[in-house]
Amino acid sequence: MPVSPVNTPQVQYVQTFEPVNVKEYPDRYVYTYEEQGTTGKKIGVGAASYFVPGLGQAINGQWGKAAGFFAGINGGWLILGSTILTPLLKGIRTISKNGAKTTEEQMEKITKLATKNMVGVVLGSLALAAVNIWNVVDAVKNAKSKRDIVVMKEQAQLQAPKQEQVNTAA
What is the β-pairing status of strands 11-14 and 164-167? Predict the structure, then answer.
């Protein structure tokens, strides 16, 4: 015989957060709680990471990730820039050595070299764009807000809240 959901008691868990830090002063306790960031903070760290890679992670306190994203993305752009500039500089050097008398064969070599590098430039640009998107998503996903709760010693004892079980049966 099937059990009716109306007669079945339901147990629901109310989530309470553990403080990440508790400071004791002579007259009070200060509990520091960490919770999901507000929408404004998420937008802020996302925009910061978009314009300066790793800045959103730095705001979130993730210094290792911040350094990794900053060095990785900016280093990638430097390598990509050198890939683009190398054939152009070789071409300019060739033209300056010969004056305005560059042959069609020399210009064809320069064009081939630049075209050959364009495949690497396009793939490198796509890879860096993907890493930058990952950078922004990671910053938004890990955005947290901290809040302090001050409790006077006369009013409370020092104890961390635990997860509570609440019976919601009618």
Answer: antiparallel
Q: Write the DSSP string, 73-126.
A: HHHHHHHHHHHHHHHHHHHHHHHHHHTT---HHHHHHHHHHHHHHHHHHHHHHH
In the block, tokens 């993305």 appear at 73
Which band of pLDDT confidence, cut at 50, 70 and 90, is reported for residue 131? very high
Q: Is the pLDDT of residue 13 over 60?
A: no
23, 149 Cβ separation under 8 angstroms: no
Sheet containing 21-24, strands listed edge to edge, beginning at the edge strand earlier in sequence: 21-24, 28-36, 144-152
pLDDT digit string, tens, across residues 63-98: 999 999 999 999 988 888 887 777 777 777 776 676
What secondary structure letter does DSSP report for 32? Answer: E
Tokens read off for 52: 């300066």
Instruction: Quote the CA–CA distance of 119 and 123 in Å, as a whole number.
Output: 6
Task: Break the chain into its structural domains and give their ranges.
Answer: 11-167
d(CA 128, CA 121): 10
